[in-house]
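Supplementary Methods. Inverse-folding protocol.

Structures were first reduced to a discrete structure-token string of length 601. This string, shown here, constituted the complete conditioning input.
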């Protein structure tokens, strides 16, 4: 837990302009600074940083917040990581829970709080030592590369330029079993608790002589989000197995949490709006050398849920790139299964399978950047790969095959947390097996072997409609909800949409044309006939046609509550933008307090 007073003091000390300018080229514009928004594509700057209010706001996409929000949104990091980043920038130390909460009087005894504090301090010192050994080893490997004609020849044969090798910090671990022990003279052989052993650089067995983990391999340093080395990947030069050898998991390095090149590729990922995930270090290196910068690689392990979460913080589109063989298809399917629970509506995960006997490294060297990017544009959406792969496992020409497909799809569909995407994918499956979608939905929900015959079911519906439109639909079917509306949210202004105007007219008609006792008797046809001569008649008819379910199948209370919540959020964002546009000097104390409240709500 980080104390709220510390967070507020931190925000008071830092200048949001300094933080944002690390990532964007800001230009002075009166009292504010502007830039093209990093969160959506635009040519005319609409992203504003206000140093007086210490807020940023984009008038294009509506993103706004303080320095913490900016780091979380832009760098894809967590709240705590953002606090750590800002604290380091401000030269502040985050107080531990002990220093805040411990009130044990000094009795000459070591309290439990003090023990925990000492343990935390010892852990920090240990990590610092491990980071230091990693950096020293990387320097040693880089020096060895310059001195090894064989290693240089190998890299040249793979097309790696000297500039690229320098950029990625590539090195070489020479042959021999005791190289690091000779360089790090403070290492007592056999000490299993030494930093060289705990970092995975040296392998120590009790009663046996220690030896270097990496020997006669091209070395690729792996960086964390702070651009500190946490591990290495070593590629063999002589065909020995394994072809790639990674550092073991340590206090610094957890394979399932890290992605090679992620921190360096971050700016390119945000600029392009997508990230390409490949399988090998050399794939990343060569793609970058040819100008494809938005690339990362997994570290000798299958794609994990943590990988997916990290990538989706950076961008809305993830493309997995695999070899076009059975192993590539198998790896892609595992990535798909891992991705399903992490997907959200508006996020895209795609799959690219390269031609036979090609990997990203060989393909881009043979066909260049444009050809590879053309392949990226043709990558299969997850839904296409999902349906194609399941269809290929069964005989869709038989009832048994179609039933088997449904059974195989059932546990996968159950993992999806994106309602609209899940609805669309279920529709694809129903078309493949020739089954009514509503029956398929009930079957999957109940798990029964024989789907019941029903005319209407409560299945997810796309809800990509404005709150104004949803409220219009509700009032057409249940006019009595007019008494529950917060009419202050419907006040017309200079920026209202046609839907908002129509909703205001509809509310006024229902309130003035029917008494409370007869409002429930108003039918949608009667309402529409009364508004038939208005300029908004065409829109009203279209909205009425868009309702595909009966009120008995529709949880109107939930729909109404959801629409009102969204309507209040629209009003909140509008008011924030209005206050942001005013000069600071003209804001009253009440308006300043209101702005802060709205930004924190």
């Amino acid at each position: 837990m980080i104390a709220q007073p510390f967070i507020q003091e931190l925000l008071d000390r830092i200048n949001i302009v300094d933080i944002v300018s690390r990532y964007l080229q800001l230009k002075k514009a009166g009292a504010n600074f502007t830039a093209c928004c990093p969160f959506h594509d635009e040519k005319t700057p609409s992203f504003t940083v206000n140093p007086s209010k210490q807020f940023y706001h984009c008038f294009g996409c509506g993103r706004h917040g303080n320095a913490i929000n900016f780091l979380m949104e832009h760098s894809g990091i967590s709240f705590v990581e953002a606090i750590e980043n800002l604290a380091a920038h401000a030269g502040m130390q985050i107080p531990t829970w002990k220093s805040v909460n411990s009130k044990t009087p000094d009795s000459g005894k070591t309290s439990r709080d003090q023990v925990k504090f000492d343990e935390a301090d010892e852990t920090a010192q240990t990590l610092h030592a491990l980071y230091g050994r990693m950096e020293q080893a990387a320097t040693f490997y880089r020096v060895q590369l310059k001195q090894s004609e064989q290693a240089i020849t190998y890299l040249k044969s793979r097309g790696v330029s000297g500039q690229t090798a320098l950029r990625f910090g590539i090195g070489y671990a020479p042959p021999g079993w005791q190289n690091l022990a000779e360089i790090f003279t403070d290492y007592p052989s056999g000490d299993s608790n030494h930093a060289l052993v705990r970092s995975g650089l040296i392998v120590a067995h009790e009663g046996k002589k220690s030896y270097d983990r990496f020997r006669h391999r091209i070395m690729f340093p792996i960086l964390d989000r702070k651009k500190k080395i946490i591990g290495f990947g070593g590629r063999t030069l002589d065909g020995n197995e394994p072809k790639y050898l990674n550092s073991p998991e340590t206090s610094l390095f957890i394979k399932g949490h890290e992605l090679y090149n992620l921190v360096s590729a971050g700016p390119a990922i945000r600029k392009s709006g997508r990230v390409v995930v490949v399988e090998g270090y050399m794939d990343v290196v060569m793609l970058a050398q040819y100008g494809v910068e938005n690339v990362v690689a997994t570290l000798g392990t299958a794609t994990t849920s943590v990988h997916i979460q990290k990538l989706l913080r950076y961008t809305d589109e993830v493309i997995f790139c695999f070899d076009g063989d059975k192993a590539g298809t198998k790896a892609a399917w595992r990535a798909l299964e891992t991705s399903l629970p992490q997907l959200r509506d508006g996020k895209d995960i795609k799959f690219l399978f390269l031609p036979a006997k090609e990997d990203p490294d060989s393909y881009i060297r043979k066909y260049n950047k444009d050809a590879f990017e053309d392949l990226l544009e043709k990558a299969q959406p997850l839904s296409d790969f999902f349906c194609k792969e399941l269809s290929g496992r069964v005989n869709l020409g038989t009832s048994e095959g179609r039933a088997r497909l449904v059974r195989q799809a059932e546990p996968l569909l159950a993992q999806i947390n994106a309602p609209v995407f899940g609805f669309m994918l279920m529709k694809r499956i129903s078309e493949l097996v020739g089954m009514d979608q509503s029956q398929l939905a009930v079957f999957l929900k109940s798990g029964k072997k024989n789907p019941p015959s029903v005319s209407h079911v409560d299945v997810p519906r796309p809800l990509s409609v404005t709150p104004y439109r949803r409220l219009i639909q509700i009032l057409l079917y249940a006019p009595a909800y007019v008494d529950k509306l917060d009419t202050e949210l419907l006040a017309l202004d200079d920026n209202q949409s046609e839907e908002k105007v129509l909703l205001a007219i509809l509310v006024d008609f229902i309130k003035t044309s029917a008494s409370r006792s007869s409002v429930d008797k108003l039918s949608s046809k009667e309402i529409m006939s009364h508004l038939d001569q208005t300029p908004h008649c065409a829109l009203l008819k279209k909205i009425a046609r868009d309702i595909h379910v009966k009120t008995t199948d529709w949880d109107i209370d939930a729909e109404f509550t959801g629409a009102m919540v969204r309507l209040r959020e629209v009003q909140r964002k509008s008011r924030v933008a209005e206050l942001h546009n005013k000069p600071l000097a003209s804001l009253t104390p009440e308006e300043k307090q209101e702005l802060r409240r709205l930004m924190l709500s």
